[in-house]
Write a structure and sequence with these properties.
4 helices, single chain
Length: 151
């Protein structure tokens, strides 16, 4: 069970990131972000501009979240308030990026009508996972803000 009392004024390290809120969201963010990346890469990139933005957001957030998770897991942050601020800012920015990418991806999928059923299902799955990733990053942002305010 995730512990909320351990997060107030404390940044976890090591396996503590698997048991505290908001850090418990790192793995689901990686999973759903990776699924968006894979599903968008599996389909035809037409039109290129909105789907290029979706790919940038999904790859950028996947890599940065993995690096961020490694920083917290290795204990590089040394339990300072600056890292809590950076965590809040990063996840807020990621939530905003994912929201913009999700809306663009949904618009592209709605406008498609000449594709096969298999490709449309992949596109719809990408939209669903993109909105789930947006929700996870948003929830992580809220809990990170609470932790940041407790420092």
């Amino acid at each position: 069970m995730a512990s909320t009392s351990a997060t107030m004024g404390h940044l976890p390290s090591g396996m503590g990131i698997c048991t505290t809120i908001p850090d418990i969201f790192y793995l689901p963010e990686l999973i759903f972000g990776g699924l968006v990346w894979i599903l968008v890469a599996c389909t035809m990139v037409i039109p290129a501009n909105p789907l290029g933005w979706v790919m940038f957001v999904s790859v950028f957030c996947f890599v940065m979240t993995f690096i961020w998770m490694c920083i917290f897991a290795c204990g590089v942050h040394h339990n300072s308030g600056g890292w809590a601020t950076a965590d809040f800012v990063y996840h807020g920015l990621a939530a905003f990026f994912y929201l913009s990418a999700s809306v663009a991806l949904a618009k592209v999928v709605i406008d498609k009508n000449d594709e096969s059923l298999k490709i449309i299902r992949l596109d719809i799955s990408a939209v669903v996972f993109s909105y789930l990733a947006t929700l996870l990053y948003f929830i992580h942002t809220i809990f990170s803000a609470w932790r940041w305010k407790s420092f």
